[in-house]
């Protein structure tokens, strides 16, 4: 049960800041649906953009974003399952990482 709770808490810390995509006051156009579909890879989008730059094809960017999001979720869940102290630390670190990334994604959405 401890491992399931740890994975749920770290997933919430990584993905809840990106729920602005669902709750923003913006019409439900194709552009917004594109961002809703990108929700699983959004935590890795900013780091992947920093790694590959602006000249890379979008499929490379989104593939790397998916890999980074999955790696972050798996490693954070594994670390958080070690003890309660690790759970608290990893959850705080996940929020500290995810909130600025969500803010950057919001600015990209509005641009």
Structural commentary:
The protein is mainly alpha-helical. The chain has one domain (2-110). It is built from six helices and no strands. It has helices at residues 2-15, 20-23, 30-37, 45-52, 58-80, 84-110. Helix 4 (45-52) packs across helix 5 and helix 5 packs antiparallel against helix 6 (84-110). The longest helix has 27 residues, at 84-110. The protein starts with a helix and ends with a helix.
Given as residue ranges, the uncertain stretches (5+ residues, pLDDT < 50) are: none
Mean pLDDT: 90
Strand tally is: 0
Q: Note the total helix count.
A: 6
* Radius of gyration, CA atoms, in whole angstroms: 15 Å
User: Strand share of the residues?
Assistant: under 5%
Helix and strand content put the structural class at mainly alpha
Could you state the order of secondary-structure elements as H and E?
HHHHHH
Oligomer: single chain
- Strand count, sense and closure of the main sheet? none
The total domain count is: 1
The percent range for helix content is: over 70%
Distance between the termini: 43 Å
Broad shape: globular
């Amino acid at each position: 049960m401890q491992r399931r709770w740890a994975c749920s808490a770290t997933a919430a810390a990584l993905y809840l800041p990106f729920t602005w995509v669902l709750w923003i006051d913006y019409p439900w156009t194709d552009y917004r649906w594109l961002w809703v579909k990108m929700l699983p890879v959004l935590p890795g989008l900013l780091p992947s953009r920093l790694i590959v730059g602006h000249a890379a094809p979008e499929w490379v960017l989104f593939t790397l974003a998916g890999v980074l999001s999955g790696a972050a979720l798996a490693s954070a869940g594994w670390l958080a399952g070690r003890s309660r102290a690790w759970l608290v630390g990893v959850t705080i670190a996940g929020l500290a990482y995810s909130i600025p990334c969500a803010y950057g994604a919001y600015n990209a959405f509005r641009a």
